[in-house]
Amino acid sequence: MGRPAPRTPAVRVPPLAAPWVRTRLRAAPGAAAALALLVALTACLAGAFPRAVDRYEDAGLHRALRQARPEHTTVRVSVPQPDPGLPAGQRARALRPEVLERQFRKVLGTVDSPLAVDRAQSAYGVAGTVSPAVPDPWLPRPTGLPARVSLAAQSGLARHAHVRTGRLPRAAHPVDGTTPEVEAAVTAATAKGLHIRVGSVIHVPAPGRPPLAVRITGIIVPHDPDGAYWSTVPLLRTPTLVTLPTPGPDPDKYWLGALLLAPEAAPALLGTGTNPARYWHLAPDLRALHAHDLDLLKPAVAALESGPALQRARAVTDYGADIGTDLDDTLASFSRLRSGISPLVSVAAAGAATVVAVVLLMAGGLAADRRRAELALLRARGASLSGLAGRLLAETAVAALPAGALGLAVALLAVPAGRTGPAVAAALATTLTACAALPLRAALAHRTVRLTAPREDVTSLRPSRRRTVAELTLLVLAVGAVATLRRRGTTGDQLVAVAPVLVGVIAALLLLRLHPLLLLRLHPLLLRRLSGPTGRLRGAIGHLSLARAGRTQASAVLPLLALLTALTTAAFGGSVLAGVAEARDRAALLTVGADARADSGAPLPADAPARVRAVPGVRAATAVSISYQAKPADGQDSVPLVGVDPRAYGELADRTGAGTFPAGRPTGRSGTLAAVASPSVASAYGTRRPFPVRLEDGSTVTVRIVLVRDRTPAVTGPDFLVVDRAGLGAVAGRPTALLVTGAHLDAGALRRAVGGAAAVRTRADERARYADSPLQTGAEHVYTAAVTAGAGFAVLALLLALLRAAPERAALLARLRTMGLTRAEGRRLLILESLPQALLAALGGAVTGWAAIRLLAPGVDLTTIALPSATAPTVAAELHPDTWSLTVPALLVLTVSTGIAALQAWWSGRRGSVTELRAGDSR
Amino acid sequence: MTGFVFSRARAHRLLLGAALLTVVLTTAVLATLTAYSGAIGDAALRHVLADPRNAADTALIVKADVPPAERAAADAAVRAGARKTFGGLPVTVRTLRRSGPYALPRSLQPAVNRSGDPDLTYFAALDRGRLRLTAGRFPRRTADGIEVALPQTAARALRLRPGDRLTLANRLHGPAARVRVVGVYRPASVTEPYWRLDDLLGRGVKKSGFTTYGPLLADPAVLTGGRTSAGATGWLASADFASVPTGRIGELRTAAREGSTALRKPTALSGTTVSQTALPDVLDRVDRSLLVARSTLLIVALLLVLLAGYALLLVARLLSTERADETRLLRARGAARTRIAALAAAEALLLALPAAACAPLLAGPLTALLAGHGPLARLGLRLDLPAAGRPVVWLAAVAVALGCALAVTVPALTGTGPEARSRPRRPGPPCARSLPFVRRGKTARPAGSRAVPAPLRAGADLGLLAIAGVAYQQLGRQGSGAVAADRTGTLGIDPLLVAAPALALLAGTVLTLRLLPPVARFAERWAAGGRGLPVALAGWQFSRRTARAAGPVLLLVLAVALGMLAIGQAASWDRSQDDQADFRAGADVRVLAAGEDEFGRTDLYAGLPHVRTAAPAVRGAQPLSGDRTATVLALDTAHAADTVLMRPDLADEPVRPLLARLAPRGAPAGARVPAGTARLRLTARLHSSTGPGTTTTVTVTLADRYGVPYQLPAGQLSADGRPHTLTLALGASAGPATLTGLRLDLTQPTDRAEQHRLTLKELTATGADGTEHRLTLPARWTTSAEAGGAAVPSAATSPTRPKVTGTRPLTFAYSTGYLPYAGIWTVASVTLRLQVTRAAPPEVPAVATDRYLAAAGARPGQRVGLTVGDRTVQVRIVRAVRALPATADPAATGAHDGGAVLLDLHTLNQVLQARYGESAVPNEWWLGTTPGDAARVAAALRALPDVGPGQVVVRDEIAAELRDDPFGAGPTAAFTAAAVVAAALAAVGFTVGAAGAQRARGGEFAVLRALGVPRRQLARTVAAEQAVLVGLALAVGLGLGTVLARAVLPLIVLTGEATRPVPDLLVLLPPGRVGVLLAAVAVVPLAVAAMPAVRRADPARALRARGGE
């Protein structure tokens, strides 16, 4: 170490005359435009992703709430009638509409955000909690019991219904507990059920006074019968025929209907024995509820149900107020479904995000690579590192920021729902990454000023220690992630979400590490092996292309990383989608048992099979008799007994793959029927001895279990016995179900063919039913989009990589052309040259994808996303490698890379080679 | 080759000796841990299964109604079934055969109760080995009459003694039984599972609506001979678990599950009512505890492996440095790399062989030593330690020894690596010659002159930190430490999570290396400013030899940090057991109510000897949104302020002021009833507008000394207009009370309302001695009326509120309302409440847990409604606390846990009284005892006839149970052992490092000596340098250990149920123990530093030996 050189006094450098950004943009408008395009695309995708997720989650939440019906989702505040000890006037006043209206407004104020109330569908009023029996003889009495009526005075009747006959009820005078007569309306359904006409008078008994006469003045039709106004208490619009739980064959029944009083007439209820209660129904405003607010929504509901909001509601209404709703259960079940689905989506998102990040970094890296000479010169002339980076940042920012903003704007317009914040953040992150990639890369590359430029076409066998350490860290993390995923499943952990991506990255890094080794060690071998065939070939193409392929580009790291990550994600995602589809197919098939089935409680008409077979598209119709009440061994437990035609049914079982058995096995001999049984039945009744089975019609057959199968097409449950139908006798053996196979079956035509005697289910309908929640379909769409975007970006990475090498290849081609290379040979050279890299990537990607799926499959459960939560999972939806998902992306990569090479050869063949050969060029 | 290996080994005796010591230590310790884990698991399993507290759970209980003809078959079937249930273990079967119920003569009942249910008893043939005779003799078979022996408690209560004769009425169809009492017995031990077969659980007396005494011990022939009515037979089968290893847990569990259900199958046992054993549950618990213990031991073992590995690498590197010249020579003369590797491997095996041979033999005694100290010694576990060691111990020892050999071999291989490729460089410029590491260690450590080792420069520490961070985050996400449930819910040890503490320790230690260069620079600058050679030389050396010094420093840091973890684990675990016991019990002793409760119970408990305070409490459940349940605890906070055991960090303020926020104001208003009142007489007259016919039930509300109102029935008052005297009998031990109100219950008349006038004439209190006091009734009353049942709530039909129409005598007038359309089945009731007026607090202040606030969507300061009984009370949350003791609801855990709310019982009752005229009756009592007397209080409580043993919760018992959990205590001992071994390893490593440095610097010192520096100054230089290193290591280790202990321990210290303890672990690092640790770790290195460091080597020879090749 010598002494430091004497430092020259600092000279103030005058600022550059030429404005950097403008000069650069003018010099290379194409590059800037390309960058802008890339940034706009990524920002658009990044911005759209969170909003798309928000949109489908919101849709799922709304669907869940709508499915739960207003009966469960409406928040019902109710207050018992005023203390009977109070003066009558005070009691009547508490029930008057203006008081209730004032309280309604105050109750609305107790609801915490983000729970919003739909004021149009909310209602308040007074209703009797006891429905007294009314003695009027003209009301229908199906079993002799008098009808009962519920009295309700709900607000806003005029707004929610139109009058079909008569007029809406009014209260001419102030009403109190002694009023002898009030007016009421009924809905058309109530009027029909209880035979009520305009002008009818119903006498509601009242203790200690003459009955309250309720005169019907109008019959109304609800505008929106499914809205919360009418559906929170469905009795208001639809009467019910209540069946009493009396034993005996003919239970007692009575009609129960609601009479809708004018709100002003509510105090009249005080005179009756209906124990009137005041209520305020707060219907949640579905449009204002968002899935991302779920964590705030739950406390808001909790506060209403059992927390401070309930107390506030009591303060503004009455101390005895109570609030009831099942909104919390609905939200909880939605939350469970979402937490089952979102980890899978985050896997796709993580994969796509990695690919996008790699492509952005790569774009920056390639730009830095291209301008290496220029930047080296600048550094040599004395440009500071920070100055250089700053200028480059300004240059990229000028192009990228407006493009990012544009992309974001497009995303916001394209996906109008959802939060804006995360979208902006995601777009900003991608834009900033794109901006920073070039300056950082350049700063890194030109940290030190070198005397000579390093050679670009040699590879070093020993990567830096830093890289080794980073790779080892990633490897350990990947192993940890995979182990965690396999052990604990996809239970909402970031580590688990990145597991497939990490596998892809590790594979890419491993491949890159092996690559030089392969080239150095295998290349000579390969050459030796190939020297025979290539030697026989004419020309130098073989040698040339092999030699060129042997030289690696220093910038091969990122494209390969992007490609492998994308291929892994695509394979994983494709397999997930394929697995979901397969699980649904299988579940539908197992539920239906064939392509379609017609079930009937009673024997089917004799000509039904023939008519069904005549329906277009039907290949075969197998008639079976299913006796659900067969009791084996004189026990109390019933087991479904299926009588089949062994040959036809065997074919059917073969086709569906459920419980295949050799043809002719369950044929009977010598009075004992051979049977196929489920494992539970076989273990319960034994396979050695025959046992009797009592059928529904009283006859008994003797059965011996000869085969045990897990499933059978005709029955879905875990218990069954399958026997030959011929052995069951004429009565018990009559077919009750038809299992239909065929393609493109029309459910309507089948229904017509069986003549309405049986319920028809087709596999296609059943399958369509499984993808019911928008949460599931939305997640699938986002998944598909993420996988596609990842694949697209991977192809982009490939393009960028080839683009980088394009000038050099064009020059090479031009030089070789001057030496006599034909166009066809040039084309072949380029294709052959690009082939090893592309093959490596494609093969590596396919193998990595396969390995990733095999590694992660034990931890991934697709049942939540594949099948509705309500149905018991009859099939376990497992992840396994899907051939198409593995091969198609790999082939795509291969095709694209060779295609680009061919294109380039064609293009440079068209252009004159003069420019490439200009003297003085550094190349 | 062998000869060369040995001779080479002799040349480096010291280093190889150190390596051998390290290898033996490591192997022995890990083998011991393996043996310990196995032995402690088996011993703990047996301890748990043999524990008398679990005896009832592990036994098989069968109860069946067996017809006389099938008794023998049933007995045989039970015995066969029991053998099957316990998987072939030796089984003892005991039986209890009992008769149907008999009624005791009325004459034995107290006079007041004679109108109610008769007292019952039954005969039983008991296992006489379970009894002790206290008087008389055992009954014999007699021709006429039945000889019986009574339980002591029953005999005392019924005042029967041997010789008495009774006639018992048969409660079923059959003849009465004439019996003669011949003896009195008591159970040998009531807690014995045998008494589970008895309906009275061996307590002799049971009160539940009616009172049952018994069983009457009779000769077996009496029960089988048809002289008594037939009853059930009970069998108790208990197994001897003394030889069950942990490997058989699964098999035993399956056998127990299948066996107990299969017992219902035999036809002889078709009348089986009970066939159960909780053995599978006990085994499940054991399984979980075993997993927790193993995971903790694994964590300890990994930490030790880390430390030992590092120590070995250090020694091995020194060795390879020492041999660099030798190896270079060998290489230069043509030795193949494989040859050198083989030499190194042979040498390493030389080290490993003795270790692998000794370790398993040492493991036995070491395990015994480990189990013989600390918490395990108290339990007296019998360890099953074969002298030759178990196969798994041998396996572990061999594996560890081979691992050690590998660790020793690897530096020797990599040490020769660079040299093989690069040509030996020329020695450096002359000025650097005096620095030995340039001369000697250059090839072995090409990066030796740099401040930071090469992997570190490449960011290995950051990578490690990232991995450790991820592992730590995963550990933190898990509620159950390193024991994680997989997708199917089965618990298992997660490798990533087990490694997390070791990774964190390693990452933290390695990061400190980044600290060294700045410290070294600072030291150099500081030393340069000083005067005198030693300081300057030491500073200069230190800053230039940072990387070389880093090795031993790192080892010391690791050892100190590991020691801190061990200290923290032991102290925190101990503390946590106490905390958990405090939290579960809530008070020294807590008594739960069995059923309905009478007036004066609080006084009864408060009057027990050694009870300092007694605070009544009401516990209830509050359903919340989202299927959660909160616990509502209303406690008499005025009396419980000193009793509640609440850890201070659970609330932002101490317990006393916290409870004072809830405390009530004002005393109950009403007629004061003096203490010692036996009887309360109320003369009243009820006049009805429709004449006589209606009868009213009168209930008096009496608030006891603690302000808890009780509703006490005072009898019937018929509405005939004449004065009646209603008498209320109070318990003997009643303290002063207050009459706060009356309640009238009557059936609502049909079709016509009645106008009633109630006149209260006088109220007298009669003392136990017969003295009478006239009590004055207050004049101001608050009244309410309520109709229930089928009552029609309307103005016309509802009862009216009673009005005070006269005060002398006090007269109330009210209308009953009526039931309009009464059928046969419809009955309506009217309740009229008369309360002495007093100001009620506007709201009830409450303290809520954070969990409750989250579940109810509330914040402190807000009001919420709570349901007590079936009434709603508005409370205001004044404070949020993290948790409340004794509020965990076993039925509502996890997602169903809705937290807890604490309020004052007194205030609650005031509000309930004022608003509804009702009160909440205590269902548990929090007792504070005089220090150390909790066990006596518990025994006294359990001796009460209507308090079951399970109804008394004793804090000390819970603490003892937790502390005596062998699964929990095992890892603590292992942690302590690990700390000791860590200190030893660090001492060895540091000494070797210091010696190596010493030797390496021989030449340099020779030069200095030749230049005239006194030896003393050189020694001081070395001492100063080493002291700085040791000090630095201790300081860093202390800091790192503190951080690690605070971060990691709360995550890995688990309860036996594989959950984090509640309340969460408070990490304790007692300064005393930390000081001892630091001293223990530092003593050897400091001694080495202080030793006359510079050998009396001949400087001339040292200077001459330059360039020896």
Automatic annotation (TrEMBL), chain A:
It comes from Streptomyces musisoli. Residues 791-903 form the ABC3 transporter permease C-terminal domain. It is found in: Cell membrane. The keyword Cell membrane applies. It is a multi-pass membrane protein. Signal peptide: none annotated. It comes from the Bacteria. The chain crosses the membrane at residues 344-367, 388-415, 421-440, 497-520, 782-803, 829-853, 886-907. InterPro entries: ABC3_permease_C. Keywords: Cell membrane, Membrane, Transmembrane, Transmembrane helix. This is ABC transporter permease. It holds the Pfam family FtsX.
TrEMBL record, chain B:
Residues 785-800 have a biased composition (Low complexity). Residues 299-410, 978-1095 form the ABC3 transporter permease C-terminal domain. Signal peptide: none annotated. It is a multi-pass membrane protein. Residues 416-450, 785-804 are annotated as: Disordered. InterPro entries: ABC3_permease_C, Macrolide_Exporter_MacB. It is found in: Cell membrane. Keywords: Cell membrane, Membrane, Transmembrane, Transmembrane helix. The keyword Membrane applies. The chain crosses the membrane at residues 297-319, 340-372, 392-416, 553-573, 973-995, 1027-1054, 1074-1094. Its main location: membrane. The keyword Cell membrane applies. Belongs to the ABC-4 integral membrane protein family. This is ABC transporter permease.
